[in-house]
Design brief:
Elements lengths: L15 E5 L4 E6 L2 E4 L3 H12 L5 E4 L16 E2 L6 H15 L1 H5 L10 E5 L2 H16 L6 E3 L1 H7 L10 E5 L3 E2 L2 H14 L3 E3 L4 E8 L18 H5 L7 E8 L2 E4 L3 E3 L5 H7 L7 E9 L12 E4 L5 E5 L2 E5 L16 H13 L14 E7 L6 E4 L6 E5 L9 H14 L13 H5 L10
Helix pairs in contact: 1-6, 1-10, 2-10
């Protein structure tokens, strides 16, 4: 069995402990790792931990079913066309994983490599796409193509293209079914021994002053054999560290907690006395009724002049646009007034969409978990040992879920990951002024 990272060790090798009091027994649940949130990101962390041999994992979900949060409201897009190296790295790993998901995980992901087509209407936007393409190729994404207006129209003839100067297209970008991916990760993890508690609310995180007496997930049998270097990496006496969680199903004793609570991540962090710059932002999506005036298959199309983008979803078209007037907050109700706004952008770029029928009752709203620089926060809390963040994906949680789960598991088990330089995504970057501004946000 893999040993947990010594900086956030686990002291228990059994799941249940009995403590004898004068007149009764007290049953205490334990786990090596507790994950708060069973959405696609939390499920990926559980999967990657279990794959690495850490199977005494307990995932907590406050809803009665998985996928009630951001996962179930996602558009399901996956793309490598980003502007920063770390996002490109995470996309490259994740898209390759999605392409093999059915074989590797044993459950379907419904990965469809239909591509993403960015359309530029200004020289500055076109130069931006060209610069991004150079960066993407340098990071190993070699199939991003510069496309002319004529090539764009050939892909989607119904576009109004009189102002389009060109664009970029990546054929391995595309879509997945977020619910299927989430369930695949969780089912595989549970097959290996991970547990899932539904309808369980976390009400508090117990944080104690630590000591240097710690042991590994394998029961600490090799604790006496640690090298001097390993010993020096242990938490100092008096360091604040996770000791357990209070939930609506009772107390859980653990030394490692993973915050995968999506838009609610900041609230969970506060339970442990930690600060996390993550805010919820409403994102609204509008599906049309069956519509046959666009091709049966075409890429996700992004109109860079407005940010409007769309793709086929079944027999209809799924329309998306980030309203610049939207403000942060836990607003999960769909605003019917949004329909007129998005249809104006839709008809402006694809005139035939003016004839599409829309039923506002079928539209929905979800929440992005936004950070100040639109990059994820992945890594340990700097002031609470044993608390790990995997939050703030700013709309990219589904597409980066394979990478984020792998990186988080690596950090818990070995203190580092060879997938990316994890210091780039540490929460400390905000206090230290190391922000990574992602401009390719949809």
């Amino acid at each position: 069995m893999r040993r947990l990272n010594e900086t956030a060790p686990v002291s228990f090798s059994f799941r249940l402990y009995f403590f004898l009091f004068p007149f009764y027994f007290c049953l205490v649940e334990t786990a090596d790792v507790v994950i708060i949130g069973s959405g696609i990101v939390g499920s990926s962390v559980a999967y990657h931990l279990a794959q690495a041999g850490c199977t005494n994992v307990l995932v907590l979900e406050r809803e009665a079913h998985q996928g009630k949060g951001s996962t179930g409201k996602s558009m399901g897009g996956v793309r490598a066309q980003f502007s920063t190296p770390v996002n490109i790295q995470m996309s490259r790993y994740s898209i390759d994983f999605f392409s093999r998901f059915d074989e590797v995980v044993g459950h379907p992901a419904d990965y469809r490599a239909h591509g993403y087509l960015f359309c530029a209407t200004t020289e500055s936007h076109l130069n931006y796409l060209k610069d991004n393409r150079v960066r993407q190729i340098s990071m190993g994404v070699n199939n991003v193509e510069l496309v002319s207006p004529a090539e764009i129209v050939a892909m989607v003839p119904q576009l109004r293209a009189d102002d389009i100067l060109g664009g970029t297209f990546c054929p391995t970008d595309g879509f997945v079914d977020p619910h299927s991916v989430m369930m695949g990760f969780m089912l595989n993890a549970r097959e290996r021994g991970a547990r899932l508690w539904l309808d369980t609310q976390v009400t508090g995180i117990q944080v104690d002053a630590g000591s240097a007496d710690v042991s590994s997930a394998s029961g600490g049998a090799n604790a006496s054999k640690r090298s001097a270097d390993e010993t020096s990496a242990l938490p100092a006496l008096g360091e604040r560290r996770v000791a357990g969680l209070m939930t609506t199903r009772g107390f859980i004793s653990t030394r490692v907690v993973v915050n995968a609570a999506g838009p609610w991540a900041a609230e969970v962090a506060k339970m442990a006395g930690a600060e996390l710059p993550v805010e919820p932002l409403r994102r609204q999506l509008v599906p049309t009724e069956p519509f046959d005036q666009l091709p049966r298959r075409f890429p996700m199309v992004i109109d860079m002049s407005t940010g409007f983008h769309f793709r086929r979803e079944g027999k209809g078209i799924l329309l998306a646009w980030n309203d610049p007037e939207e403000t942060s907050g836990f607003k999960t109700e769909f605003d019917p007034a949004f329909v007129e706004k998005i249809l104006t952008h839709a008809a402006g770029r694809v005139p035939c969409l003016a004839e599409a029928e829309v039923n506002p009752r079928r539209a929905w709203a979800g929440l992005y978990e936004m950070t100040p620089d639109h990059h994820a926060i992945i890594g340990p809390s700097p002031n609470v040992a044993g608390l790990y963040f995997v939050n703030g994906f700013s709309g990219h949680g589904v597409m980066h879920s394979p990478a984020s789960g792998r990186i988080t598991a690596d950090l818990i088990l070995q203190g580092r990951s060879d997938l990316i330089d994890t210091t780039q995504l540490s929460v400390e970057r905000f206090a230290e002024g190391r922000l990574l501004e992602e401009t390719a946000v949809l």
